[in-house]
Design a protein that fits this description.
By secondary structure, the protein is of the alpha+beta class. The protein folds into two domains: 18-104, 2-Layer Sandwich (Phosphorylase Kinase, domain 1); 109-280, Transferase(Phosphotransferase) domain 1 (Transferase(Phosphotransferase), domain 1, Orthogonal Bundle). The protein is 42% helix and 18% strand. A six-stranded antiparallel sheet has the order 1-2-3-4-6-5, with helices on one face. A hairpin with a 4-residue loop joins strand 9 (152-155) and strand 10. Helix 3 (120-139) runs antiparallel to helix 7 (256-269). The chain starts with 17 loop residues before the first strand and ends with a helix.
């Protein structure tokens, strides 16, 4: 690809529009938008070989960086870390010239949607797989960077997490180039934005919190770690993993394998938490017990009172009978 591109930041392609690669002459027909980010827009498109995900950007350096990452992923033998790279070219339109690349279209469910109505252990199982992929990525010298539910899909069966956007992938040792506040340890004051394995592991912990809190939440209080731990304790989904989450949020894991091993142990124990009530339910249960105890005490008092009334009436009757008996003898 050449490096002379339009400075127009966005290339808008309407559904049904057709494009032709400038250099490879491969035709594509736009179906719809799949998503948009800081480095470009991803479209679902029809190609000669079937459906593909087409990412169109405005900055050649960003697109070239992502293409290099995908090429590197394809060299990891026996592992599929990201979507397969299919084509790299330029798009010429009335708005200017834009770089783009075509990649494998992954059809699946967003992580948070997938987790709805599934058991506690499923969260751990998916994270175990994700941590294994992250370990391979880190071993290759990269950090994912902008790791969040929006950038992964659950495909299958069998269920498996796949990455769909590598725009934030950064070489270890450099500064994170893309991040989303909720998943960024710098935002929470719990670490730097240096690209290192612990940065991604913090994001894994926040992804798990996001599964429990789909609407997310804002930072509160002067001690973010205390606030985050409180959020963990309030959700049954997170209880089996609270120790692992605490370690990851505080940067205690040196690599993804350590966190993965602890996650495996947590999953093995997760079945014991299926029926563990939340704090609200515990409070509700306690309130019910208190009310039940009060009712029992009232019933006991009523029963005791009734008993004494019966004794009094019986005694009065016997006394009256005895008086009548004496009166009869005197007559």
């Amino acid at each position: 690809m050449k490096n002379s591109y339009s400075k127009i930041p966005v290339c808008k392609l309407a559904s049904g529009s057709k494009i032709l690669g400038k250099w490879h002459n491969k035709p594509y027909k736009i179906v719809r938008i799949l998503g948009a980010g800081a480095t470009g827009t991803v479209y679902l498109a029809e190609s000669a070989s079937g459906l593909v995900a087409l990412k169109v950007g405005s900055d050649s350096m960003s697109i070239t960086s992502e293409v290099n990452v995908l090429k590197h992923f394809s060299k990891v033998q026996g592992q599929v870390l990201g979507p397969s790279l299919l084509d790299v070219d330029d798009l010429v339109s009335s708005e200017g010239t834009f770089p783009f690349y075509a990649m494998e279209y992954l059809k699946g469910d967003p992580l948070i949607d997938y987790m709805q109505n599934r058991g506690i252990e499923w969260l751990g199982i998916l994270m175990i797989q994700l941590l294994g992929d992250l370990n391979r990525l880190h071993s290759a010298g990269w950090v994912f960077g902008d790791l969040k539910p929006d950038n992964v899909l659950v495909v299958g069966p069998p269920a498996k997490i796949r990455w769909i956007d590598v725009g934030g992938t950064t070489l270890i040792g450099r500064s994170i180039k893309e991040y989303t506040e909720f998943f960024d340890r710098g935002y929470w004051g719990l670490g730097s934005r240096k690209a290192e394995p612990s940065y991604d592991l913090f994001a894994v912990a926040m992804i798990m919190l996001n599964c429990a809190y789909p609407e997310r939440f804002d930072k509160q209080g002067e001690k973010p770690i205390v606030f985050l731990k409180q959020q963990i304790e309030q959700q049954r989904l997170l209880l089996p993993y609270r120790d692992v989450l605490s370690q990851a949020l505080q940067g205690k894991y040196e690599n993804a394998l350590q966190m993965r091993q602890d996650m495996i142990k947590a999953v093995s124990k997760s079945s014991t938490y299926k029926h563990v009530p939340t704090k609200d339910k515990i409070r509700q249960g306690t309130t019910k017990k208190v009310k039940a105890n009060k009712k029992q005490q009232v019933k006991k008092r009523e029963k005791k009172s009734s008993y004494f009334v019966e004794i009094f009436l019986l005694s009065s009757f016997l006394l009256l009978a005895y008086i009548l008996y004496l009166f009869g003898e005197m007559m």
